[in-house]
Structures are given as structure tokens and as C-alpha cells.
Amino acid sequence: MSLHRRDFLKYSALAVAATSGMPGFLARAATQATGQKTLVVIQLTGGNDGLNTLIPYSNGAYYAARPTIAIPKKDVLTLGPDLGMHPSLKPLMGLWDSGQLAWMENIGYPNPNRSHFASMAIWHTADPTQAQAEGWIGRIAEQIGDPFCASNIGSSTPQALRAAEFSLPSIDAVDNFQVKLPAGLEGAFGAMLDAPRDGEADYLVRATRQMMSNTQKVQANVGKYKAGASYPEGKFATQLKDAARLIASGTGQRILYVSLGGFDTHAGQRGEQDELLATLASGLAAFQTDLERQGVAERVVVMGFSEFGRRVAENDSAGTDHGQGSVMFALGKGVKGGIHGDSPDLEDLSLGDIKYKQDFRGVYAGALSGWLGLNARDILGGDFKGPQWLA
Amino acid sequence: MTLPPYSRPLTAEDAAHLLRRTSFGATDAQIRALVGRDARTVARELLSFDGAEAPGNPFDPAQAATPAAGLQLIRARWLFEMLYGPHPLRERLTLLWSNHFVVGTDKVKNVPALTEYLSLLRRHAATPSFSAFALDVARTPAMLRYLDNDQNRNGKPNENFSRELLELFTTGIGSPTQQNYTEEDVKEGARALSGWTFIGGRGNQKYLEAPKFVFNPKQHDNGRKTYLGKTGNLTGEDVLALAAGHPATAVFVARKLHRAFVSDVPTEAAVKGSAETFARTGGNIRAVLEELLSSEVFYASRAAVIRGPVEFIAAALRSFGSPKMEAKQLLNLVQTAGRMGQLLLQPDTVKGWDGGREWINDTTLLGRMQLAAALSLGANAPKLDTPPTPLALLGTERAATAAALNGLSAKQRTYLMLISPEFQLA
Fold it and tell me: How many domains does chain B have?
């Protein structure tokens, strides 16, 4: 194929012209896009079982409810007198020991919804009434007036990154994130985009222009990065490496979003979840090492969640069904390590599930105001108090 | 209320619109052959497909050397059918149903189970009975495995299928103020579905062994249950019939059809029209589609559906007149669709792909540009006797895009049309 890799600067005229047709928030100057601090959000898709992640290993009720799938006490990575981590999370023990890993217990929201999709939408919109279509990160983009303030690493954009008029970028693989127009077609391409349109066609024109500007920004920077750690095999770790690369090369996103799926463990949970947690922990440990070596660890924190936890009692397929409250985690030098919240109460359940005691929007509020320096109230639509998980 | 019919003879743009939505796309000649015809007759003809398949399909999943190869071959065999088969609407509907009654190859890797599932979707593509369709799907080993109903036993319920049956396959959740079902319905449904399982084909080694549905009466909960307001010794069949026949199901399924064939953001009034036809005909999808595809609302909705990756690929090649491609190229196209967000039979979750604007982000747009270049300018681009016209690729001869094409070579024109907003819409 006779395609030439083109210098992105040649497209700068196109990219500048692109902003003229943008909806309000997209056209504003992106002055705050290069904030110093970055939040990395990790989504565990499918409903991660919190009880087998942060294990109440001194509680007999835990073992009684889970005769097959409970983590044996001898395997638990002890964190305190009542709680310990799943053995697959061992790569994170160094971070725990140095006070850079926080667990938040019994996180949820009022009137829990056991549908994966409704519950995920609640976490994405930060709205338990599900009245909003925009994501909480999309609203950040609107507040600071920069559609490039956050990026998903992956091929499809989660609702969290949806704004009123636009989805924020998804970067599947940094190396491929560039436009290669065939030689001699730049003018015709520009003229083709310039034709007046409305409706979905107009949406596609705006999306294309935004994409050209985003790819240009990324490619102008990422060459500066050299990996500072060896990452494990697999998509999740590769995506974390891309996140480290974007951060270290200063592309300017305030938030990066990475997902790991497969946590819907209705049957044969031990094998599946054990492997997923190992993937999670080994990837995050490499990521932190990389950030240290790049000299940027001070300005990055990671915050992880899943749409719900799972029922306390195991089912008869050696798995667990959809539950309510669960754990969140955070890690990084800016985090106040430790366990925030009480060990889950297994004697006082709601329909067989752990009751939530801390609202996830309080955890978000910490990230927004405490870490990113944004107005959490405007973004979350209310004042939410949560655990003090930032140092 | 039914949908008001479109009563004028089809123009070239009408015909292009119809074939974009129902046949992925078509050549200039195929479009022009419908000019002047009556909308209802044409819709009926499009819907009167049989089981005939594309001749010479080079992909045979039964020959797979490994489970992973089996999945590749199943996908490629299906894509071949979409590109070259005699009934593109049947395949468009099969794609739609695979995104409704979702199973995923993350869990289901058995070749005969997936082949059976796909041929069932094809057989029911324009089913006269949605209820019979739902029941048949529920009993495929692919679905039993994917949503764990094979683990659902008397006194040891597994609620996974029971929940998704209501939430995603039939009634939908409803609104926060008016929920279509309760948690209790999910639990009771699981009891009624207990004992539905399959034998054979389990485990990685047996990926070519055909599994078979069985009802295991010893594992079935015979007690009284209450489900969607009905009480009795309900069976799995009862639960499927109650869920499929629920009034909310008519609206839920009608909305899906409108999202595929009318607009990514359908109007509730039009959805209601089709829902009433669905209810009146006892869930006759063929009747709903025939009415829909010959309605005013259908012909008034241009460029309102963003093509998904598989549709993008099929549209390009169908508009080119289905040129011959090497088997390896077709396998590559399957993977390319995956990189653009749609690996066949493998959506991220049981909800399937949301479609619409969700198809579009920086990465997928880049993927579309790269693919368009490969199909038009690349060294291995299909050889075309006649270059595709603006009518075939853009749906109109008067597109604003056309001016930008002046003075370019045929290949360059094709490339720019493929990356235009107009081509990405149906």
C-alpha cells in the first residue's frame, strides 16, 4: 500500500480549523489540560467479589457461608487482625508495606441494583437514580473545557467518559494512534469534511476532527518514553503500560481509564477470580514500578472499583451471584495506605448481601477535590463525604 | 395503531436507503432495479428468504484443529455468508439477534453449539413467533452454558439466565418508577428453569462434540412459584412464554428493531406502532418487519443509523458487487472488525453492543480509515470492473461530499467516499 507516514504538523491547519464547528465546551481553550496530577481509574467489569478480595479471615460466618470457595486462612495475606488480601494480590504487598495501598470497605449506594448494566451505569454517571446520560468524567471534561482531559485505554468508550455532545477519546494502542492519509489527498479530505451537514453526519465530522487533533497531540509526545519496568504479558498490563507512557510523556490527560473484565463469577469462581486478581496485581505492580523509574509516581494515583460485590453465600455452582456492597482500592504515593472502614458485618445482611456503609460518590469526591483540584459538588451534583483515602 | 404505509413508487434514493438498511449495501444496478416499485411488495420479497447459503464457502468449523481455530472459522464462515450469501437481510437479522440473545465466545467455545445457535438465529430471523424463538434459544447448549442455566438445579438455583431473560431478552427493566419485574420474579424464574441443562461437548478437548439439551426432572423444582403475576407449578416453558408474552416485551423488542432499521434514537411513537403490531400478531416478527420496512417512518429516516464495524465491512463489499477475496483476507476482515469494536459473537457483556454513537471513538475511526484505504487503495484491494458510484456508497447522487471528489482517480474517489460520514451511516 502506498501510504506515507505523514508529519502531523502538516495537519495542524486542519486541526485548528476543526475547532470552529465544535459545540461550546469543545471549542474553549484547553488551558487546564496540563494539570500536574493524574488519576488512573481501574474498572473491574462483571462484579468483583469483594469478600474474596479483602477477606474477613477471622470471621467464622465467612467460612460458613462459603464452604467451597472461601480463601483458606493459611493462604490469606494478612493485613490486620480481621482482614487480609487474596493470595493472588501478593504483587501488591510491597505497596501495602510502604503505605501506598488503601482499601475501602463496604462501598455502595442506596437502593442497590443487581443488574450489571444498571449498576455500572450508576457508577459511570455517579447517579443512583440513573437519570443522567453523561458520565462523571464526561462532566469533568465539560467543567474544565477540554475533551482531551481524559482518555479511555481500550477500544470502546465506557459511559463514564461520555459528555453531552461527545465521547472522550479511546486509545486502543498508543502506537497505532495516528492518522496516515495517502499522499495528495489532504486537500480533498479537508473539502470532504467541510461540506455542510447536520444530524449524525455532523456528529461524525466533529468526531473525525477531534480524533485528528488528539492523535496529533499524542504522537507529538510519546516518543519520549522508555519503559522503566517489565510488564507481564496480556492486554491489561499492555494497557497500563500505555497509560504510563501517556503520563510520562506529558500528553496532558488528567484521567486515564483502564478496564479488566470477566468478574461475573457465577460458577467455578476460585479459578476465574484467582487468575483475574493475579492479572490485576501483577499489572499494577509493574505500573507503579514504571512510574517510579520515570520519576512521575508522585503525581499519579490509581482508584479501582467494580459495579457491585457478590452475595455472601456461595451458590451451588461454586460461584456467587450478584450482590451489593463491595470494596474499592486505591494506590500510589499520594494515597493514605490502610483499610478505610470496618470489616463487613456478615450477621446483618440485606437480602443475603453485605450492606453498604460508604457511598462511592464520597470516594469519587476525594479524587475530584482532593487529588484533581476540581469542584466535586458541581460534578457529582451534591456533597458526598467519604473515607479520607488521600495522604 | 399501525405504521402509516409509504405509498409512492420507490425512487433511486429510496431504493438505496432500503438496501443500505436491509442488505448492508448494494451496487448501483441492484439499487436501480427497484426504482418505481411498490414499497410493500419489495419489503415482502426481501423478507421471503429461505435457508439457501452462499456457494463455495471456504470456511468449515468442523475442520478446526483447535478450539480457537473453531471460533475463527465460525466467524469467517458467517462473514462470508454476509458478503456473498443470497439473503443479506436474513444475515442482517441474524446479526441483530446475536446481539439480542447474546452468547459470548469467552465462555462458549464448543463448535457445534455455536453453529447450532447461529443456524437457529437464522431460521428464526423473521420468525412468526418471538415466543417460540425465545424458547428455542433458551434451550441451546450455547445459551445454557453462557448464562449458567446448566448449573441451575432444584434447591441450588443459579439466577444468571433467569435475570437476563427478563432484563435483556424480553421485558427489559422498565423505568425506575415502573419496573417490569422484581427480584422475586428473577428468583422464581430460576426455580422454574431448574433442570434445563445439556449433555456432551463439555471441556476443551470436546470442542467438536455436539452437546444436546436435556431436561433433568430430578434437578427440577416442582414447587409452586409466582412469576410475573402468575402462580402455579410453573415450568421453564411457562416462564419463557410468560416473559415473551409480557406486554413490555412487545415494546422492548420493537425498540430494538427500530434501532436497527430506523434510527439509533427511535421515536417512541413509532416504536409504539410496531409494538402494537407485535402484540396484535402474537409476536410475529415477520409481520412487524414487513410493516416497518414499507412505512413512512422508515422512508423518512435517512442517514440515522451509524453502521457498526461488521456492517461497515459488508456495506463496502456489497456495494462493490461482492468481489472475490482470498480466504486469508476474509479472516483478516473478521479480526479487523474486532479491532473496530465488533468481534462477531464476542461482545464485552451479555448486553451486547449498544451501537449508535458508541461505535465511534478515536480508535475506531482510525480503524475505519485504515480499512477504507486497504479496500480501495491498497495493493490487495479487490479488483473492481466498475467503480462504485456515489448512489451505491453515499445513498444519493447529490451528496455534499461529491464536490470534493472532482479530479480524483476512481480509487481515490472510492477511498474518500468510504471514509465520509455518509458512508458510515445507513
Answer: 2
